[in-house]
């Protein structure tokens, strides 16, 4: 989130940014937030003054007792103070709740290079990479090919879990693991530490990494417990250092997350009933970086290169898009999407995204670092999909299928496929 001090000192910048994001209603929130912030600070001073009066009166009563003076007026005065303090504290609590409500929902400040636009149709293509193959036969969808190769069970999984889940078998199950090892090996060689995080998180940690107001409806909650299944390993990695102060010499911290991911996927697109593109459970390798603020834009390009190198190695045609102001969400200051080519549908589809969250997540999670001068400031966080295997399946199965219904395995994955 944005710090209240930043908003106090830069309210015009915040309002201008909200206008770029098409968040007209939130512009009025800024004025109300600043009003309530001023009231809150005044109430803090008021409660402090009341406590000082109570302490002073207590000392005066003790002194008057020693001198044998009448203390009835002072006793009456001190008896009134607890209720006054309680009323002020209740007002403080009410104001603080509203201030927190605004702070948790007002989005990050966008980088100047983020294109203006209303939705994903106005995202800007940065580059297209790779040669698109020409096929002289009717292509199968990735789901059809998985079934043809006896590598996927979609209908049988419905019996035990409902739509949006699937069995992987044989060579396709190996392909899933091969993709994970391929991405892990590349990232580990480039200095990233492999992390297998908890698959469950409590609400406090989750509120730090994302907007629960926007995201909770696609999350699985454990009934009767303060726990949610993770939607991506980004989230437990981001909250690993919650409420901690790191040393400057520890930075940057580069993680390669390995996890299953769980999402309800109840949006307008629905879920795949015969395929793995839009599903409730999938495996993903995620990049995550904690760094000094002055280095975050350099690392934003580094993790972008990593994800592109993975798809270049797979020889999958792809493009990079700069996500516009109306599609970026509240957490990121800038986001790239990576989209792979679908030869069957003759269009690109999203396989990953790369976000520089600047200090927004770290402020929510209270993660700081201490520089060599002993000064503390909020750290910057970045995340990027390396490989979401369920989406990479679609790219590989469509681009590498053969006329006889067989599948050619990309050369970079062959060493992981047991021959």
Quick synopsis:
With 419 residues, this protein is an alpha+beta fold. 43% of the residues lie in helices and 19% in strands. The strands form four sheets. An eight-stranded mixed sheet has the order 1-10-11-12-15-9-8-4. It has a three-stranded mixed sheet with strand order 7-13-14, with no helix packed on it.
Number of domains: 2
Helix fraction, binned, reads 40-55%
Structural class: alpha+beta
- Characterize the largest beta sheet: strand count, sense, and whether it forms a barrel: 8 strands, mixed
What strand line-up does the widest sheet have? 1-10-11-12-15-9-8-4
The CATH topology of the largest domain corresponds to BirA Bifunctional Protein, domain 2
CATH architecture of the largest domain: 2-Layer Sandwich
What is the 3D form? Answer: elongated
Strand content bin: 15-25%
Give the SSE order as H and E letters. Answer: HHHHEHEHEHEEHHEHEEEHEEEHEEEH
The residue-averaged pLDDT reads 92
Number of strands: 15
Tally the helices.
13
CATH class of the largest domain: Alpha Beta
Cα gyration radius (Å): 27 Å
Oligomer type: single chain
Terminal-residue CA separation = 49 Å
pLDDT below 50 for ≥5 consecutive residues: which ranges? none
How would you describe this structure to a colleague?
The chain folds into two domains: 4-105, Helix Hairpins (Orthogonal Bundle), CATH 1.10.287.40; 120-416, BirA Bifunctional Protein, domain 2. It is built from 13 helices and 15 strands. With 419 residues, the protein is α+β, with helices and mostly antiparallel strands. The strands form four sheets. The chain has an eight-stranded mixed sheet. The protein has a three-stranded mixed sheet with strand order 7-13-14, with no helix packed on it. The two termini are 49 Å apart. Strand 13 (368-370) and strand 14 (376-378) form a beta hairpin.
């Amino acid at each position: 989130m944005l710090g209240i001090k930043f908003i106090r000192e830069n309210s015009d910048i915040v309002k201008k940014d909200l206008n770029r994001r098409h968040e007209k209603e939130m512009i009025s929130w800024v004025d109300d937030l600043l009003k309530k912030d001023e009231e809150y600070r005044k109430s803090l001073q008021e409660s402090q003054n009341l406590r000082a009066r109570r302490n002073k009166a207590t000392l005066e009563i003790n002194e008057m007792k020693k001198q044998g003076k009448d203390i009835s007026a002072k006793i009456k005065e001190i008896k009134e103070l607890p209720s006054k303090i309680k009323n002020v504290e209740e007002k403080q609590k009410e104001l603080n709740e509203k201030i927190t409500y605004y702070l948790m929902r007002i989005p990050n400040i966008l980088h100047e290079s983020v294109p203006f636009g209303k939705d994903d149709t106005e995202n800007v293509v940065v580059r297209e990479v790779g040669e698109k193959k020409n096929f002289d036969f009717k292509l199968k969808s990735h789901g059809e090919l998985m079934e043809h190769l006896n590598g996927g069970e979609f209908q049988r999984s419905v019996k035990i879990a409902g739509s949006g889940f699937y069995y992987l078998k044989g060579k396709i199950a190996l392909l899933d693991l091969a993709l994970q090892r391929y991405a892990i090996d590349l990232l580990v060689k480039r200095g990233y530490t492999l992390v297998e995080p908890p698959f469950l998180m409590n609400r406090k940690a989750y509120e730090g990494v994302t907007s629960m107001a926007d995201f909770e409806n696609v999350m699985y909650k454990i009934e009767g417990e303060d726990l949610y299944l993770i939607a991506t390993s980004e989230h437990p990695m981001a909250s690993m250092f919650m409420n901690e102060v790191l040393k400057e010499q520890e930075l940057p911290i580069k993680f390669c997350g390995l996890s299953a991911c769980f999402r309800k996927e109840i949006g307008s697109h629905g879920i795949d009933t015969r395929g793995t593109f839009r599903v409730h459970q999938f495996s993903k390798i995620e990049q995550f970086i904690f760094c000094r603020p002055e280095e975050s834009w350099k690392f934003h390009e580094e993790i972008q290169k990593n994800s592109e190198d993975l798809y270049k190695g797979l020889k999958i045609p792809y493009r990079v898009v700069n996500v516009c102001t109306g599609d970026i969400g509240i957490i990121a200051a800038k986001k790239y999407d990576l989209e792979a080519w679908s030869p069957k549908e003759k269009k690109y589809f999203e396989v990953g995204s790369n976000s520089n969250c600047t200090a927004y997540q770290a402020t929510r999670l209270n993660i700081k670092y201490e520089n060599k001068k002993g000064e503390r400031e909020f750290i910057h966080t970045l995340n990027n999909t390396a490989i979401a295997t369920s989406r990479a399946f679609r790219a590989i199965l469509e681009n590498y299928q053969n006329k006889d219904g067989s599948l050619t395995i990309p050369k970079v994955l062959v060493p992981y496929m047991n021959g």
